[in-house]
Amino acid sequence: MNIVFAEPIGLTENLKNQFNDEMMSLGHAVKYYNDFPSDQDELFRRSTDSDILVVSNFPINKEVVEKLVNLKMVAIAFTGVDHIPLDYCKSRGIVICNAAGYSTQAVAELTITSAINLLRNIVPLDKITRVGGTRNGFLGAELKGKTFGIVGFGAIGERVAKLAQAFGCRVIAWSRNKKDIEGVEFITLENLLKSADIVSLHIPLSVDTSGLINERSLSLMKPNAIVINTARGPIVDSTALSGALKNGIIAGAAIDVYEHEPPIEDNHPLFDAPNTILLPHIGFATREAIEDRSGIVLQNIRNWITGKPTNTI
After folding, report:
1. Among 142, 182, 269, 273, which is least packed by CB within 10 angstroms?
2. Looking at the chain, which residues constitute the CATH 3.40.50.720 domain(s)?
3. Is domain 104-278 in CATH 3.40.50.1860, yes or no?
4. 150-209 pLDDT, tens digit each
5. Catalytic residue ranges
6. If one looks up domain 2-102+287-305 in CATH, what number appears?
């Protein structure tokens, strides 16, 4: 079989060589690409003969999959799979495996870091200090005692809850699937938005969640509330969020994901919104997480080859 890594996923050269030798000994061929495809045509050219295709979060169009006549498995080096034509792949019997859990700690830590940064005005005070300014006019707030609202309570949401509790927060959550977690109160989404000092998003993107944080939902929040999105960009209406920040409806936002992968266009509505931290999708990007991801992806391939697929979607 032909195994194609159509984009880099953080494998070390040593790990690439080891996996290549292992697969060759089993009669399989492995091809690695060390840069990102420029477009869907380039993705197709790279993966034309692939039986197993490996990508991270580079989108795959249905039209590309239709032309990959040998494709039997897609190994996603990511948790979310909304960037691939999942229903079509399933109709073709193509197995989809993701790297579930690899970035749970990384994203949870970034969430807490973002909350503290916003509450303590870290980014603006750094800029002021560099030009000879002082803290005059700035008074931060503590995470302790805040109501931390978690929207979506999968593995990452649960880890965020534990970290927030360690800082002394009251934790409330909304999720389709409730869990029996000590100290976490599950309530309606509307009540969460009304009650939370911090609203942190940890839900997958779907028809139901696209635009979930919009003008109406933002209007329900406290004037001192902050929004953190480390999930998927389209869950938040960026224009509505920008307006809420400019008009003082909420106090701040930390955003790591957007309508598409960075770079972001110069006229993005959040670029001139006050009290924001804008990051280039770094939630998963730690050395530890990438190492874990590499191991999960390679093991998913091995397990599928031996007829015991893991992390299937």
Report:
1. 182
2. 2-102+287-305, 104-278
3. no
4. 999 999 999 999 999 999 999 999 999 889 999 999 999 999 999 999 999 999 999 999
5. 232, 261, 281
6. 3.40.50.720
